[in-house]
Amino acid sequence: MKSVIAFSAVLASASAFVPSASFVGSPVSSVTRPASSTAVSMAASDMVGASAPLGFFDPMGFSKGPAERLNAYREAELKHGRTAMLAVVGFLTQENWHPLYNGGLSSNPVKAITEVPPEGLFQIVMFIGFLEYVISQIVAKPGYIPGDYVGANDLFSEEGPHSQWETYQLKELHNGRAAMMGITGLVTHNFLTGGMPAFEQISRGVYSGGIH
């Protein structure tokens, strides 16, 4: 019962962070955005992220759905990419440094999560729920652009053949995709090597034909 009350309190406090009006972005720029920029209305093959070397790559046919579904897929890709970028940094940090505590947990990130006490796991889940609630409220606002929670697109110029916002999105998508592959590789090699730190794996040649 206490857990339910605590979770309800978190959701109530989270509402204070949710914009009450339509999502209009940051007012710092006078650049006028076309209405089509708030939704994916272009052909999927022309969307930001369809770039070399694969170009437009959709073997499963996910892009054949309506614009709303494409927006949801782009939203999910950006969210997963951002989470993966943080995960890679956190994984490597946990293996080598412990800035938030003075020992007590394993330096093996995969093992450390099993050593967190139930109270700590509860706090993690509550915080994730708080973020998801706030984000879901922002996403529901009219004029929302996938991945842009604070109106950052208004900070970029539309001048030139490719807008600064498109360039920024492309860089973030590339880094997010690389990070998703990166954290998958880190966790996989952690299991395959029995928890050997990533930097030690590199120095011992795990990635170049086995441990030497």
Automatic annotation (TrEMBL):
One of its GO terms (molecular function) is chlorophyll binding. It is found in: Plastid, Chloroplast. It comes from the Eukaryota. GO terms for biological process: photosynthesis, light harvesting. The light-harvesting complex (LHC) functions as a light receptor, it captures and delivers excitation energy to photosystems with which it is closely associated. Energy is transferred from the carotenoid and chlorophyll C (or B) to chlorophyll A and the photosynthetic reaction centers where it is used to synthesize ATP and reducing power. The LHC complex of chromophytic algae is composed of fucoxanthin, chlorophyll A and C bound non-covalently by fucoxanthin chlorophyll proteins (FCPs). The ratio of pigments in this LHC is; fucoxanthin: chlorophyll C: chlorophyll A; (0.6-1): (0.1-0.3): (1). This is Light harvesting complex protein. It comes from Ectocarpus siliculosus (Brown alga). The gene is LHCP23.
